[in-house]
Amino acid sequence: MPTCMFCGSKVEKRDQMYYCLFCNMELMADQVQNNGSRRQILLEDPSSLEDAELSTGELMKKDSYYLTCLLRMVRKERSRIYHYLHIFKKANEQQGSFFDQEADVGSRYEYWTRKGWIIENILRERCGFFPERIYDSNVQMMIQNVRRSNAKLMQVNRRKSK
Hints:
Layout: E1 2-4, E2 11-14, E3 17-20, E4 25-27, E5 32-34, H1 56-60, H2 64-94, H3 99-127, H4 136-151
Antiparallel strand pairs: 1-5, 2-3, 3-4
């Protein structure tokens, strides 16, 4: 039985669309589910730090799990770059011959800082906050929660009358 992806109610086919009486809205065919099942959330891991180089618009299309994992990678890279920036600053204080390298590393540090802010703000817009720290346990809990919610049906159990 075709059902609404939001409330699990039966939907009616109307021309090329479907209609949910409970939600009082039209649904596209790809939004219709079956027998109260939920639309499955498929978890995609960022494959590398290069994924952070997507445009802001492309990052906004990614799911929160993906962005959380990517934010973790971006923060790690930013921290790594900061370490090199610190080394070049020290070297310039002592010898004063690494200004070009310091400027180059400084611009990379700014790049990764801004990429982190972009991801944090996308997550903040969705959830109201962004994670200060991201531990393996946080990522594993997200995976478990998505799997659990994917499996949970939207079906009302009616009490039997006596």
